[in-house]
Design brief:
Helix 2 packs antiparallel against helix 4. It is elongated, with a radius of gyration of 36 Å. The chain is built from 21 helices and twelve strands. The protein is 63% helix and 11% strand.
């Protein structure tokens, strides 16, 4: 909660002006019943027309001032609440960008989306109400009570009985509702997750005739969310009718006992009407307070969720070293192990590996052997559990984030493209890239031939996720984007799996011809993709079981040989050498 207070500091002026004018409006509003009583007693009952006109004009002026004051307050509340919400969203988005993959996995994408949208919207409403009503409503309650007491102290005893009952109702609502609102938000996260999975995986769902199953799954989560929301809604819905009943009973008591005191001469007709007006004001203010309790109960739950994100400290911290001169070894793994959060089995175990500068290194192994995990450690998507990684002879943890990102370009397994043009996606790697550089990168990535066939070439619109492109086109475009970056180290993490063998071969040949000084790491399950590499690393269950050239590994590594046989990549010359 405290983490959110600094976001209100830029709006101190609005937070001061808004409540001041709203309070001023409330003061004027409290004067109206008293003026009405004077108008009735001294004007209407006495038949004094001039007094009625004079009091009417005064009340009109007060009402006009009240409208102006309310407008100023509303304007201040809009500026402060919208500005606060914008600043919190920006801070959350910035914070999310600093979190490690492990932390993002823990928080979850659907939950983060709900927090940065729905929860922040709830907090915006809370800030607006803070300026508009949080001071005004209690002031009207207290002020109305004081004004009523000045009219008749004995009749005011009714309020002394009613107000504690009202506070008890609010306390019971808060006590029951706060835990349920937290549960509602969590169930909404789960519902969003199911919806996101269905929208992103709609092709797979339909391919496996899973529409009915997914509908049942969604209905189940939706019903769970709805049941909880209805339950908390029922509790919150009790607030208004219960408080209205209490306050209406109070109004009946005022009319009954007030009538008795009029008959005994202790009160005038105007004072009874003023008393009723004050109890109406108090009634309305109490209902507003009840609604504020519900609003701030929701806001409290949202504030905890937003604060959790803002208070999360990045698990990965960077140093200050910039890119230095190239050394003999581009990357060195020294006794590196990694165990994912929540897992007891290491994904990588005691890895010792040196990648020489300018070398093309192939990484191969079975599914789940740790290939992608190994290369994900180089750009520090995850940090090692044990051991150390060196980049150009310097520990990777000493590099600044900018230096590390400029040194390593990685193309991941899943081709991630963004809405915009083809050129916009290329510019993500280098903002000032020229058309000549884009075309050269596309040539190397074997992407020019399909880009030129597109209606607008490099200005062709790419839909979200690249859904208007084929799998092979998306992969070639992401490779071209990485090549535009022209980083000293290029990592291709199974990024050509959707390409045919001829295109894959042309791609590897073009990369080799155009990246003389670049260190290239190719991760693949295809022997064909790595067999021409300077060296090949074979992984099995997170351990290195072989390092060498294609021919060397056929003779020395049984697992590599099995992979080759399974893909029919043992050539006659290889078999002869093996014998």
């Amino acid at each position: 909660m405290k983490r959110l207070f600094p976001f209100l500091k830029p709006y101190r002026l609005q937070l001061t002006i808004g409540p001041f004018f709203k309070l001023s409006e409330a003061v004027l509003e409290l004067l109206i019943p008293t003026l009405m009583a004077l108008l009735i007693d001294n004007g209407v009952n006495a038949g004094n027309r001039d007094y009625v006109i004079k009091m009417g004009i005064l009340m009109l002026v007060i009402a006009t001032c009240g409208v102006i004051f309310a407008y100023i307050c509303q304007y201040s509340a809009s500026i402060a609440s919208q500005g606060f919400g914008t600043d919190v969203r920006n801070a959350m988005f910035k914070k999310i960008g600093t979190l490690s993959f492990t932390q993002l996995d823990k928080l979850g994408t659907p939950s983060l989306i709900n927090r940065i949208t729905g929860d922040v919207n709830q907090l915006q409403s809370a800030v607006a109400m803070l300026i508009r009503l949080v001071i005004r409503a209690p002031f009207l309650c207290v002020g109305g009570l004081i004004m009523a007491m000045t009219i008749d102290l004995k009749l005011s005893i009714i309020f002394m009985i009613v107000i504690p009952l009202f506070i008890l109702v609010l306390f019971l609502v808060m006590f029951k509702a706060v835990p349920l609102y937290k549960s509602v938000q969590k169930k909404l996260d789960t519902l969003t997750l199911v919806l996101r999975e269905n929208l992103s995986g709609v092709r797979v769902i339909r391919a496996f005739a899973g529409v009915k199953r997914e509908k049942e799954r969604f209905d189940d989560k939706n019903k769970d969310y709805a049941d909880t929301a209805i339950r908390v809604g029922k509790i919150a819905a009790l607030t208004n009718p219960v408080t209205t009943i209490i306050m209406n009973l109070a109004a009946i008591a005022v009319i009954y006992f007030g009538g008795i005191r009029v008959n005994t001469g202790h009160l005038s007709q105007g004072e009874v009407i003023a008393f009723i007006n004050y109890i109406t004001q108090i009634l309305n203010a109490m209902i507003v307070v009840a609604n504020l309790v519900v609003l701030y109960t929701k806001a409290y739950a949202s504030a905890l969720r937003v604060g959790e994100v803002l208070e999360t400290q990045p698990a990965i911290t960077y140093g200050e070293k910039s890119v230095g001169a190239k050394s003999e070894n581009a990357v060195e793994f020294k006794n590196v192990s990694l165990t994912y959060a929540g897992s007891k089995v290491p994904a990588l175990d005691n890895i010792n590996l040196t990648v020489r500068t300018g070398e093309t290194l192939g990484v191969i192994g079975g599914t789940g052997s740790g290939k992608s995990t190994l290369v994900s450690l180089i750009p520090r998507f995850y940090d090692v559990t044990q051991g150390e990684i060196l980049l150009n002879g310097i520990p990777i943890k000493e590099y600044s984030e900018d230096a590390l990102r400029s040194t390593v370009a990685i193309v991941q397994q899943r081709a991630a493209l963004f809405s915009g043009t083809v050129a916009d996606n290329m510019r993500m790697a280098k903002a000032d890239v020229t058309m000549e550089e884009m075309r050269k990168a596309a040539d190397v990535a074997q992407a020019t031939e399909f880009i030129d066939r597109l209606e607008d070439g490099f200005d062709t619109h790419v839909s979200q996720g690249g859904n208007n492109l084929s799998g092979g086109q998306k992969q070639r475009l992401t490779i071209a984007r990485a090549l535009v970056k022209n980083s000293p180290i290029l990592i291709l993490d199974d990024s050509a799996s959707a390409l045919d063998y001829a295109t894959d071969a042309n791609l590897r040949r073009a990369i080799k011809e155009n990246t003389d000084s670049q260190t290239v790491i190719i991760v693949s399950q295809r022997v064909n993709s790595v067999k021409d590499a300077d060296r090949i690393v074979v992984l099995d269950d997170g351990e290195i079981v072989g390092i060498g050239t294609h021919r060397e590994l056929i003779k020395t590594c049984e697992i590599y040989k099995e992979i080759c046989y399974s893909q029919e990549q043992i050539e006659e010359g290889d078999e002869d050498e093996e014998k």
